[in-house]
């Protein structure tokens, strides 16, 4: 079962989560000389990424990448890369090495091999994977009812291409095996709607119904969840 950290506001949760990530990254750098952090996109991570960018980390030793990416130009408002560049990779944190999940290929399926190659060159396992969760229970870009979901949950590959059934843009996503192979899995949720989905996921049931269960209902890797009431 995950360890839960409960807060009243998203700001309090973000500040606490940023501090926890910074401590673990600093420990990883001290132990191995380099640390890796894969973050989610969407709306939820903005405050934590902004808070993290102000933490005293040796940014030159940090590799930052994404848990998933929408196949849009990196200047698009929908780009997860843009979010990371605007929030985390600011000031001293701009010294971190960013490994994108988007290439110039025409679509996600055509771009997958190049991204897989870039990811194969990273130090594995990843130190921290910061997950988000959609109101439909998707995490990364592992969407319920996506044609690629079964593959994303069972493939030993690290990356899959996905066409979400009910969300815009083709995606690349880490697979369940890549997520579960990380040293620490963190999940961040805020608000009553997401909390209700989280509680339903924890209560048990098929992973295919609520893919966030891949992280919550397993005991391979420790999972900590930061929950904000608002
Ligand atoms: O599309 C995505 O959605 C999820 C959840 O996003 P949020 O806006 O509800 O926080 C996110 O975790 C994922 O990285 C993103 O690509």
TrEMBL record:
<feature type="domain" description="Glucosamine/galactosamine-6-phosphate isomerase">
    <location>
        <begin position="12"/>
        <end position="218"/>
    </location>
</feature>
<comment type="function">
    <text>Hydrolysis of 6-phosphogluconolactone to 6-phosphogluconate.</text>
</comment>
<dbReference type="Pfam" id="PF01182">
    <property type="entry name" value="Glucosamine_iso"/>
</dbReference>
<protein>
    <recommendedName>
        <fullName>6-phosphogluconolactonase</fullName>
        <ecNumber>3.1.1.31</ecNumber>
    </recommendedName>
</protein>
<comment type="similarity">
    <text>Belongs to the glucosamine/galactosamine-6-phosphate isomerase family. 6-phosphogluconolactonase subfamily.</text>
</comment>
<dbReference type="InterPro" id="IPR039104">
    <property type="entry name" value="6PGL"/>
</dbReference>
<dbReference type="InterPro" id="IPR006148">
    <property type="entry name" value="Glc/Gal-6P_isomerase"/>
</dbReference>
<dbReference type="InterPro" id="IPR037171">
    <property type="entry name" value="NagB/RpiA_transferase-like"/>
</dbReference>
<dbReference type="InterPro" id="IPR005900">
    <property type="entry name" value="6-phosphogluconolactonase_DevB"/>
</dbReference>
<comment type="pathway">
    <text>Carbohydrate degradation; pentose phosphate pathway; D-ribulose 5-phosphate from D-glucose 6-phosphate (oxidative stage): step 2/3.</text>
</comment>
<keyword id="KW-0378">Hydrolase</keyword>
<dbReference type="GO" id="GO:0017057">
    <property type="term" value="F:6-phosphogluconolactonase activity"/>
</dbReference>
């Amino acid at each position: 079962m995950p360890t839960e950290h409960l807060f009243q506001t998203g700001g309090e949760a973000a500040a606490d989560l940023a501090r926890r990530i910074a401590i673990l990254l600093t420990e990883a750098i001290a132990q191995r000389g380099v640390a890796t952090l894969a973050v989610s996109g969407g709306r939820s991570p903005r405050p934590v990424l902004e808070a993290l960018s102000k933490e005293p980390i040796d940014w030159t030793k940090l590799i930052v990448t994404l848990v998933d990416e929408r196949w849009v130009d990196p200047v698009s408002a929908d780009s997860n890369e843009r979010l990371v560049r605007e929030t985390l990779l600011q000031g001293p944190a701009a010294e971190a090495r960013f490994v994108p999940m988007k290439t110039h290929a025409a679509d996600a399926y055509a771009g997958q091999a190049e991204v897989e190659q870039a990811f194969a060159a990273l130090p594995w396992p990843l130190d921290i994977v910061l997950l988000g969760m959609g109101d439909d229970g998707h995490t990364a870009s592992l969407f319920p009812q996506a044609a690629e979901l079964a593959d994303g949950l069972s493939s030993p590959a690290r990356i899959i291409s996905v066409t979400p059934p009910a969300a815009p843009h083709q995606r690349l996503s880490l697979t369940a095996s890549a997520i579960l192979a990380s040293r620490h899995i963190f999940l961040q949720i805020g608000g009553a709607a997401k909390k209700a989905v989280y509680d339903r996921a924890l209560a048990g049931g098929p992973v295919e119904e609520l893919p966030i269960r891949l992280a919550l209902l397993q005991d391979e890797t420790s999972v900590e969840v930061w929950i904000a009431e608002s």
